[in-house]
TrEMBL record:
The keyword Zinc does not apply. Keywords: Methyltransferase, Transferase. InterPro entries: SAM-dependent_MTases_sf. GO terms for molecular function: methyltransferase activity. This is SAM-dependent methyltransferase. Residues 1-20 are annotated as: Disordered.
Amino acid sequence: MTPTLVQHHPSAASGPRGTRARDWAEIQERMLVPLYEAVYARLEVGPATRLLGLGCGSGLALLVAASRGACVAGVDDDPGRVALARTRLHDEGTPGTGTAAVVCGGPADTADADCTPYNLLTAFEPIGCAAGDTDCLAPALAEAVPLVRRGSAVVLTGWGPPERCATSAVLRVASRLTNPPRASGGWRAPLRDDLENVAARAGLRPDGSGRVACPFGYSDMDSAVRGLMSTGLFDAAIRATDPAQVEKELVEALHPHLREDGTVWMPNVFRYLIARKP
């Protein structure tokens, strides 16, 4: 499925954090829908699936799984995104009271009273592009894996090779503006074994992988800048300079991807690893 070119609408949320969460939900999150669908199709996600999503954002991946009949739960550390996910899933945010639950906290906060284990764990926030992102995922996996039934799938996702991801050149803005370079949160080139290394640290057994084309398409330059800024990959650069400087550099980096009709289009490839809990 090819992402739809989207037009940004003014946010109703107040404050920079709420605005960014809205930008993520309205602009950026849908760019990874082909990844969600490829993983769910391969694992035959359906009514028998009990899924826990780490870093679930504003809940689009959970919604796609729920539309296939899965019982879903998600965790994220961004209150704005969690609020949007709850609205999206018509969930009150209390685990165990419905087919969907989203919490701002840790994986253990999603456990049902009867401690029914999950049989699918996903981490759809791609790693391998920001300094320290693999280290940030490890504690969440350590907390979540005990909640998953033995033999169940754990899905890790990451950016593909820079030569296959047009957005990589744009993300280098984050590294160039960060002081010192590669500070926590700054861009770095993905490594071939990023996903396998994280799986090994979590005690998981690799059981297959795949690549999925996820082009980033925006209706105009403003939407592209707001969408990319909502990812958090430019936070270190903003701290080192200021938002206006980062936006200016982003526009310059995006210019080669601006088409005659004013849209912005960047082909990308993302990778996923399916691992199993022994």
